[in-house]
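Sample entry (400 residues):
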Amino acid sequence: MPDFKTLDDLTDVAGKRVLVRVDLNVPMADGKVSDATRIERVVPTIRELSEKGAKVILLAHFGRPKGEVVADMSLEPIAHAVSEILDQAVAFASDCIGPVATDAIAKMQNGDILLLENTRFHKGEEKNTPEFTEALAADGDIFVNDAFSAAHRAHASTEGLAHHMPSYAGRTMQAELEALEKGLGKPTRPVVAIVGGAKVSTKIDLLMNLVKRVDALVIGGGMANTFIAARGTDVGKSLCEHDLADTAKQIMIEAATAGCAIVLPEDGVIAREFKAGAANEIVSINAIPADAMVLDVGPKSIEAINGWISKAATLVWNGPLGAFEIEPFDKATVSAARHAAERTKAGKLVSVAGGGDTVSALNHAGVADDFTYVSTAGGAFLEWMEGKELPGVAVLTKGI
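Predicted structure, serialized as tokens:
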């Protein structure tokens, strides 16, 4: 486990100005937050610091304003949502640096919470310029990073600040890092990875890294068709990246060299059209009709995948096994997710999952709360799975 400081190491914070980087990049509808999951995740850190008497100053981005002030990317409406969820007043400042921010912070009492305006309204945020970072740092005594989801970016508020003041991981960041360590850092073996989704092209680095670190790699979703086609099997009208056949072959060679089993579908659920309730049938993966497409893995494949989950001590999951958004092509994803959840609840499996579609799929299966850890981090979770160093995490392990 990387050696980073947590809130357990932060004892005397009363009266201190604590800059807390959080992820408040939440979906909005009609000016209101439509999914508050990311806000709920950072509540423990905010509440703990507030109760210890810190002046809690929240830093966050929203959308991609590219260094310009964009009215509908203001964090002001989100301050109200944070206040409601915390059941505590949350003040708002219309800038994150300069006199506006400094004056708002000067008015704070111990335990108060203040949300500063979108850090990305300044070009210096994403460029991590010394001038902007120093302007942020001028208003704080301590830095707490609780935004793992932004940790793959070397921005001023995710990485730069840690060079200017004592820095700590918040509770969400801590939980994420501890879960990821169990998943791929120092996992209990055997380790099985499930990787699904539409395209191999978006996950080449991920697959190349995983075959060297896991005992079995289950490939599902549209990307499985690319591997099946690379073996010389006709996949009909299925989603397939034929131009990546050589890449798929290379991944299979790397897996064989590393002793990693590649698990591909043996059968599939096919249809002639991509819509809910479309006429469908189950065929052997070697007998896909020329005018049909595979939209889910079949029952034999589900049995094989669940067999691998039964053998596993650790499961890492990214991406659905089929077109889970439309019935009946959600069966494989739901079956595997529920089997993994049952084994996790029985204490037989450490299950770590992440990525946008994965979270949606586990919610669809009704088991997101039963996994050991479900990451909402998206890009940061993928880069971690690819074996890349995350700047926002690395800087916490180095300290100042």
